[in-house]
Amino acid sequence: MGQNVRVRKLLIGLLTTVTAVVVGAVGVDFGAAIYAEYRLARSVRTAADLHFDPSAAILGFPFLTQAADRRYDEIEIRAASVDHPVVGKASLEATLHDIDLTEASWLIGPDAKLPVGKAESRIIIDSTHIGRFMGITDLLVEAPTRESNDSTGGTTESGISSNEGLVFTGTPDQAGYSEKVSIAVDLAIAGPDQTTLVMTATGVLTGPGTADQEVPDDKLAAVLAAFSTRVPGQKLPFGLAPTAEGARGSDIIIEGIAEGVTIALDEFRLS
């Protein structure tokens, strides 16, 4: 009986020691990741001339193994409500995959040039700022009705809807019409440098999920014109070319995806 007690105590001691070592290792790994993310956020702030630290996340576990291998699995950078010369405020996002740190420190500095296997970047403009730009102060943007009602989502992997038939709901007072209406709007990208967002109203929407308001024939052209516009200056983070535009929630999003590129942090904000 005494021997069993001694063995039990020994096993408990060993288990406690192993647990302490594991917890300590995880804590060190977690702490190193937090510090590297803090330094990355400060570097992006400095390089991109932001007035605040963006959100920066280095994903994947364990972190220290990635740092030792000089290659991060994935990095996410987000900056909300950044000053924009055209729409007033916009949010910027970037997701980087397979980041090569061979020529950079694991603590990424503001001057780092980072080869990445795949880069995604987005400009996000909320309904409020799009509405102010258009002169429709109560504007609400939603994904196309057919996609909102589709259990599969009908969206890209990033959660962005298609670019056709977005639902714009608001009151086009400048068109001489004071009733709230819902309009189908198509999005496109134009311009020699692919930085102008084109919004083209195609018709009035009625029924469930809309303002359910018809527009008289003599007002239709003016109302459609009020919901159509061009928004220049939409340069994606890191200069990526747009590959999709649509809605997510009540925001308009322009997204670019590219593979095998080298990014510089001072190109995170280009507008």
Automatic annotation (TrEMBL):
Residues 151-165 have a biased composition (Low complexity). It comes from the Bacteria. Residues 145-166 are annotated as: Disordered. This is DUF2993 domain-containing protein. The lineage of its organism: Bacteria, Bacillati, Actinomycetota, Actinomycetes, Mycobacteriales.
